[in-house]
Design goal:
1248 residues; alpha+beta; eight-stranded mixed sheet; seven-stranded mixed sheet; 41 helices; 40% helix
């Protein structure tokens, strides 16, 4: 990418080497490539707004993002929750955000509002924040509402908010207002179809209220992608015998579609048909209901649909499948009757998930479906869901058991007292004209009385919320037990009512901002109320003297300190934290830590590391960064920003990766100084590594992750919880597509995108130049590494190198050569390969007598070419491909389309003559291609004889999806759509290709802020030392939240205890990944083995470096070899003992037999030599092992683990090893019963 507004782009190759672009010779109208990004980057016409939103669009879809621009949002309140909500909505790119808060800034506001500084004190909160809010996103209008509190209601009538031509869509209340104003705003919003939302943080209690009015339509309840299923067959089937379709009767006939993959549709779901051919094309765009298709199967048959043979059967026609199942059914029934037929013949209904029944509407002809031959797509359709919501005023009374974030608390009725506390707070203001004071005991006592009175009054109201006993979520009508405990909760609520915790502010700001977006109809709103209460955070009450000292010394932390207490506040300030990652998660965590005052005391430290640089697409979520920061280091930039917020923050920013290659920097001393590790990572491998470190050093680990609207968080506590490595999560979760489908028979847009990425870009732009450069720089070395490839890879490599050489032998490599090479690919990939495939498959059809082009196998059509007037799609492909080759050969680009077209036409390019292939075999089953070894050898011989000294250097591409100037996404889009046109598949737009080929992970500012807020709260518990207290697991929360599906999918729960592994040892029955086996002393390997065997009563089979089971320090097989014998006796006989020797030296068996029969002579000497050579080899093995076995464990480790040939790796190994006093080992053992057993990782300390 490039700096925005920098004028025309200088021409650079992929490595940044400057190249002048050739001058424009003509200026003619261009009728192709309007969608392409490279020329727009050159002319400064890139859609910068959409650049920022690529990750959000992957989550919402472009349509929802566009509808969000119609949202005008009014936010009331700019304390912690308000600023978080505003930040998230502005980053999400809604149409406009208006903020209201005339309250003068107080110093304690700095503890939760990150856009207030000491210079803001005394100024109205909203106006003090306005400049920073505007800087978040230049494409979102942000302004201040200048009105009295009583006039906000009148402002909701505005029909042209901030000159957008639209009224307010949503109002968000982020701090409680007095009753008349609050209820008036709620009523006004409902009357004007404005969503009314509220998010409140009151100490350790939070409340969310959501009201989308009396009429709201949900257009997409969960945001999950709809299913696109390819039709492979369509048949008219009578409902008889074993066929089961709910809602239809015996004798009915139904259209059954066979699908290329399984569906998850239910009876009555709606689908839309597309891509139907011939007489069935009239059904394209039609929406029909579907039913599942099932068969009756004998229970005793135990049919397994996941069985390979069953899956193959289900690919057959429905008639053949039914015949097979019917035959099976008759067999089992006959067997049942032969045995006497007592009781009922047991059978079950099996749903065939690769089939669907269409419910045809009146006027649709059933028999028409018998004409089906090929093609067809089934697209699931999400129904619109109408919803009615009730007002704040009514639900505040008539919500009998309000939902809690903690489901167990909800089922126990904990939400009742919180709900009543809100009403009591309003009554307190009604009576006294102010809210309850912070730590004001008198106010708290009065508040408790009011709250109890509210409950008492409501007892007689049907469906009202009062302090009644709730069992499994159902109100009992009986008074709650232990009212004194509830009174204590009311008292704490009052004492801390004015307090904010930054973690809860972030949680609420993320959750409520996501609710705002639901005004578009996307996703399911929260079911009105959602409360949370976490009393574990409350610390001892401050003494008056200590409180006065705090207010005088650190007034910005007053509200947090009032909650957590003096000791915890000090502990927070003294923390030593390692934050790994500084993307969206990392930015949120840095914000939270700075606001909380973490790592601000002498000797404390916050270390953040991230190797990445800031990209434009980061700006929609990573809110610490701005446009001028693009290309700057993330960690350094973020540290600078949060340090400016809180100058006391002791922060160090690094640009180092954390893993097995950086243990010389992140060494024992580094880890042992930490109090906790905090992950802000986006990949499983890195997470597993940091978790391993925490397991080894006994550190708590805070972990979280997001995927669009979905998120999770975990607290991993030493010895108390399962570890991250105990889970089975991996980065590989993608559905694999058969290569024969990608290569020859695509039927979905995804197939074309994947093939364009794998076979076109990766081969032409990465693999080919990489192989060529390896050959050019070191011919002999290239041929050595070539042998490690499979035959097809070898063939591809050699052919591509030869092609690059041929280009240069033909003359100067200039841009015209790049065009010709692009045209050669165009002809080969989209014309001649299609001719080859059609010819071969037609021949197969003739020879078999069976139709070939049926179901998902589409008969492709070759691309067109006219040298005088090239088709637009061809020009787009040539433009992207030729410029990609220009980057490879470092010749000037031609970005201007008119000049490019002129040059293409001037070359008079012609499609080469086509000849029918001699080999007509086509892979239809996904078999691997095979190369001719003779051809490979001939190519090797030819290239080995070629001197590469005079060859030109080239530069391989490195795929980068976010740089419009590099032609990568343009190339993939053009290639994808040419292939789609070949197979009559729907085309894909550039944005979709970018998301799919670029593996863009959906990411949202709302989800990130929400989950990070919850983790911030768990951090306070760690600082408080709750993980070292009794019942620790009952004081922490993990979370699993999907903001798309409403309150039912917002859940927090207690961490799981460690997974215990059964060891099969009497002396150590079980252990967890937190456990280590400590062994000390500079001992020999033999002593280590004997120690393990003696302590546990086991036989040690192998010892190896932890996590490196391919390396070996000790192998029991080597001990056995000490007793092996290979000797040549005086009488000439070979003595070979035991029999296993022949396994290691198989040639000895023949030598032994021949020596028994053969007389003296040269031939006998040959076999004697074999025996003596083997004896020498065995003795060498014995000597080597004896030396290792009798030597130190540490030396055995070095011998096994130190890299053999790489000097740099050896240097790194030595640096790490010299710093350590221990080795991490693992052992494979067997117990006294001969069973495989386990012991924990061994920490062997060999020096102090």
């Amino acid at each position: 990418s490039r700096p925005r507004g920098a004028g025309p782009l200088c021409m650079f190759c992929c490595t940044g080497r400057a190249m002048a672009e050739e001058p424009v010779k003509a200026s003619t109208p261009v009728l192709w490539g309007e969608w392409m990004g490279a020329w727009k980057a050159d002319e400064g016409k890139v859609d910068e707004e959409q650049d920022r939103l690529s990750r959000q669009n992957a989550a919402f879809g472009g349509d929802t993002s566009a509808r969000m621009k119609d949202l005008n949002v009014l936010i009331v309140g700019c304390r912690g929750v308000g600023i978080e909500t505003a930040k998230n909505l502005i980053l999400s790119n809604v149409g406009s955000v208006t903020v209201w808060d005339p309250t003068p800034t107080a110093v304690e506001d700095l503890g939760a509002n990150f856009y207030l500084g000491t210079e803001s004190i005394g100024k109205p909160r909203a106006s003090a924040c306005l400049g920073q809010l505007k800087s978040l996103n230049p494409y979102c209008k942000v302004e201040l509402l200048d009105a009295a509190e009583e006039d906000i209601q009148r402002c909701l009538a505005e029909t042209n908010v901030l000159s957008t031509g639209k009224p307010y869509s949503v109002i968000v209340i982020t701090e409680i207002l007095k009753r008349p104003v609050l209820f008036a705003l709620s009523a006004e919003a409902r009357s004007k179809n404005i969503a009314f939302l509220m998010a409140l943080n009151m100490g350790v209690t939070t409340s969310i209220f959501s009201d989308f009015g009396p009429k709201h339509i949900i257009t997409d309840e969960d945001g999950e992608p709809t299913q696109m299923l390819a039709v492979s067959a369509a048949e008219v089937v009578p409902l008889e015998g074993i066929v089961k379709v709910d809602g239809l009767k015996e004798g009915d006939r139904v259209v059954v579609l066979t699908l290329a993959s399984e569906h998850s549709l239910q009876d009555g779901d709606v689908i839309a048909l597309d891509d139907m051919r011939g007489d069935l094309s009239a059904y394209n765009g039609k929406q029909l209901k579907v039913r599942r298709f099932g068969v009756l199967s004998p229970t005793d048959a135990k049919v397994d649909l996941s069985d390979v043979s069953t899956k193959e059967l289900l690919k057959s026609s429905t008639g053949e499948v039914l015949a097979n199942f019917s035959k099976q059914h008759e067999h089992w029934k006959a067997e049942f009757e032969a045995k006497g037929g007592e009781g009922k013949f047991k059978q079950r209904e099996i749903t065939l998930f690769n089939r669907l029944c269409l419910v045809l509407e009146d006027g649709m002809v059933l028999e028409q479906w018998a004409s089906y031959r090929s093609g067809g797509l089934v697209n699931s359709v999400k129904p619109a869901i109408p919803k009615e919501y009730e007002s704040l005023e009514r639900t505040l009374v008539h919500t009998a058991n309000p939902q809690m974030l903690d489901q167990e608390s909800w089922h126990a009725g904990e939400g009742c007292w919180v709900h009543i506390a809100l009403e009591a707070a309003l009554r307190f203001f009604d009576a006294k004209g102010r809210w309850m004071g912070l730590r004001d005991v008198a106010d708290a006592d009065a508040f408790v009385s009011m709250a109890m009175a509210v409950s008492e009054e409501r007892k007689a109201l049907e469906g009202a919320c009062w302090l009644q006993k709730v069992e499994w979520g159902f109100p009992s009508g009986e008074p709650a037990e232990d009212l004194e405990k509830i009174k204590e909760k009311f008292k704490d609520f009052s004492l801390l009512f004015r307090a904010e915790l930054t973690g809860f502010c972030a949680f609420l700001g993320g959750a409520i901002a996501q609710e705002v977006i639901k005004k578009t109809g996307k996703f399911t709103p929260i079911e009105q109320w959602l409360h949370h209460h976490d009393p574990c955070l409350i610390g001892p009450h401050w003494s008056e003297g200590a409180w006065a000292a705090l207010v005088g010394a650190s007034p910005r932390y007053t509200l947090q300190a009032a909650v957590v207490g003096e000791k915890v506040m000090t502990a927070i300030q003294e923390e030593r934290i390692f934050l790994v990652g500084c993307g969206a998660l990392g930015c949120e965590y840095l914000k939270g830590l700075a606001l909380m005052g973490a790592c601000t005391a002498a000797g404390s430290k916050l270390i953040v590391t991230d190797m990445d640089r800031i990209e434009v697409s980061n700006l929609s979520r990573q809110f610490l960064f701005r446009q001028p920061d693009v290309k700057s280091p993330k960690s350094v930039t973020a540290a600078r920003v949060v340090k400016s917020w809180n100058p006391q923050l002791q922060i160090e920013a690094l640009e180092k990766g954390v893993g097995v290659t950086s243990e010389d920097f992140f060494d024992d001393e580094f880890w042992q100084k930490l109090h906790l590790c905090w992950n802000a990572l986006d990949n499983v491998i890195a997470r597993k590594y940091t978790d391993q470190c925490c397991l080894w050093y006994g550190l708590p680990l805070l972990e979280s992750g997001t995927l669009g609207t979905k998120s999770n968080s975990d607290v991993f506590l030493p010895g108390l919880t399962k570890s991250y490595n105990d889970s089975t999560e991996s980065d590989t979760g993608e559905t694999q597509i058969a290569m024969c489908t990608l290569r020859s028979f695509p039927y979905l847009p995804l197939h074309c995108i994947e093939f364009a990425k794998q076979a076109y870009f990766c081969d032409y732009m990465e693999f080919a130049p990489q192989q060529y450069e390896a050959f050019r720089k070191d011919r002999e070395g290239f041929f050595e590494q070539l042998d490690a490839m499979g035959e097809m890879e070898q063939m591809k490599s050699l052919k591509m190198i030869k092609n690059f050489i041929t280009l240069q032998q033909a003359g100067k490599v200039d841009f015209d050569v790049c065009i010709k090479e692009a045209f050669a690919h165009y002809c080969r990939d989209f014309i001649n390969s299609i001719r080859d495939l059609v010819y071969s498959c037609d021949q197969m059809e003739k020879s078999s007598g069976k139709p070939f082009w049926t179901g998902t196998k589409r008969r492709p059509i070759e691309a067109k070419w006219d040298p005088k007037s090239p088709p637009a799609e061809a020009m787009e492909y040539l433009y992207a491909t030729a410029n990609c080759y220009a980057a490879i050969w470092q010749v000037p680009f031609v970005r201007r389309r008119a000049e490019f077209e002129r040059r293409v036409v001037a070359l008079g390019l012609r499609v080469p003559e086509w000849t029918a292939p001699s080999d007509t075999k086509v892979d239809v089953e996904g078999e691997e291609d095979k190369a001719d070894p003779a051809v490979i050898e001939e190519l090797k011989k030819e290239l080995y004889a070629f001197d590469p000294a005079g060859l030109l250097p080239c530069e391989a591409h490195d795929f980068e999806k976010d740089d419009d100037a590099n032609f990568h996404i343009d190339f993939l889009t053009a290639s994808t759509n040419l292939r789609s046109a070949n197979y009559d598949i729907k085309k894909s737009d550039r944005a979709h290709v970018k998301v799919t080929a670029g593996r863009i992970i959906p990411a949202l500012a709302t989800t990130t802020a929400m989950i990070c807020g919850l983790v911030d709260v768990e951090f306070i518990k760690l600082a408080k030392g709750l993980h070292k207290s009794d019942g620790a697991l009952d004081k922490f929360y993990n979370a699993n939240v999907n903001l798309a599906t409403g309150s039912q999918a917002m859940n927090i729960f207690r961490p799981e205890p460690p997974l215990k592994k059964k060891s099969k040892l009497a002396t150590l029955p079980e252990f967890s990944t937190w456990d280590k086996l400590e062994i000390e002393g500079d001992i020999t390997l033999k002593e280590l083995v004997e120690h393990l065997e003696g302590k546990f009563g086991v036989t040690v089979q192998r010892i190896f470096p932890a996590g490196e089971d391919k390396l070996c320090i000790f192998d029991s097989g080597q001990v056995k070899k000490l007793g092996w014998k290979i000797e040549l006796a005086e009488d000439g006989k070979a003595i070979i003992e035991p029999e296993e020797v022949f396994t290691a030296w198989p040639q000895l068996r023949m030598a032994t037999q021949m020596l028994q029969r053969m007389p003296a002579g040269p031939s006998r000497k040959n076999f004697e030599g074999q025996v003596l050579a083997a004896a020498k080899s065995l003795q060498s093995v014995k000597d080597t092992f004896a030396g290792t076995y009798g030597g130190k464990v540490s030396q055995a480790y070095v011998n096994a683990a130190r890299p053999k040939d790489d000097a740099e790796k050896q240097k790194y190994f030595d640096a790490v090893f010299q710093k350590r006093s221990y080795i991490a080992l693992q052992a494979h053992i067997t117990n006294s019963e001969g069973e495989e057993a386990d012991v924990p990782v061994i920490r062997y300390s060999f020096r102090k």
